[in-house]
Task: structure prediction
Amino acid sequence: MARIDVVMPQMGESIAEGTLSRWLKKVGDTVKRDEPMFEISTDKVDAEIPAPTAGTIAEIIVKEGETVAVQTIVARIETSAGVPAEVAAAPVAAAPAAPARPPAMAASSASAAPSSAPPAVASTNGAAANGASANGNGASADNTFEGRLRSKSSPLVRKMAAEHGVDISGMHGSGIAGRVTKRDLLEHLASGPTAQPPRGTAPSMHAPGGVQQSHGPLPEPWPGDRVEPMSKMRALISDHMVASRRTSAHVTSFFEIDFTRVARMRAAKRKEFEAATGEKLSYMPFIIKATVDAIKQYPIMNASVAGTNVIYRKPINIAIAVALDWGLIVPVIKHADDLSLTGLTRSLNDLASRARSKRLSPDEVQEGTFTITNPGVFGSLMGTPIINQPQVAIMGVGAIEKRPKVITGADGEDTIAIRTCAYFSISFDHRVIDGAVADEFLAQVKRNIETFPENGVV
Result:
């Protein structure tokens, strides 16, 4: 018999810790190799973690809700295979072995505020923050495991520190190995005067105009109320939505789009398409294709704001908001401008399926350049979605349904006809996008859908 260590995996290069959100097995249960064993939640993605080997759960070390460093042993599996622990753990990304956790660490880290913006409509774009240094001035002399962990774990904290001129290298935070968390930095900023951001640095989504704590008294529970802490994902979404509203000058426009042509094409070619591709054909790939083609004509819709500069993104990476039973996540179709309707369908169906089964990797919820959200699947007619930072626009799709419409015939006579229609909304950042441009963009999306070529389906 041999005991195999099961460790907290590193779900991405910049991830230094994870929260063990739920055990799927208990002590004494048998597991097969690659069978889901527990769920984790990081600042990028929720995921199920498979067993590294077959055997019996001999010991559970990390409890649900605890946040621990990557490579921390969370459980042990007893197996008769005699496979050494280091071999079984090999699929996990290599990282230095975690030191023993102080007794109070689990409590402090579990209660620490989320330290990075989220993927869904939480931000999934960490690229802007990844280049920030650990201490705001580029110094990173501490090469110990604790030092690397502190400097590597949260691009968000590093970016916030750089923007406020705060040197976090000497701070001892409440996170793993003294890591400075977002809450630590916010408390530091709120405790007294802070250094001014470097010249030319504008307020960002992370620290819009100076980070503000909630004002006013917190509500108290009444007798009979149930109080539950926010999940890590919910807290991240909360932070990101508030930050986005404070950052971008939100304006929303609405258009009604006639889907009758697309609906007829889809009905006529659905069976042929599904037989040829093995994929179910929904309306969303048509919408994505029409949107990508419109972005090519209006590249400002695919941009980001960096201080007083505008970054026009070359790739068109379409982020699609996916509703989950436990929150919201925004996987990204990379280089959507290179994909046909079939390719978009395959990518969309694959990402949505793996999002719901917690099998997305961190890179699949990052680097989106334009977001589409579809509340219409729940019957909503229209909405005013919040921009997914650091993007500058988000498009909302309302319910696609049949409506009576006035149609003008070739002879100029008006008649009432049944048409398949939907309301689209575009929320845009008025700092860099004028209303006329946003409306022209959505008008182009409308034209692309209403004149979608029949040869573009199969």
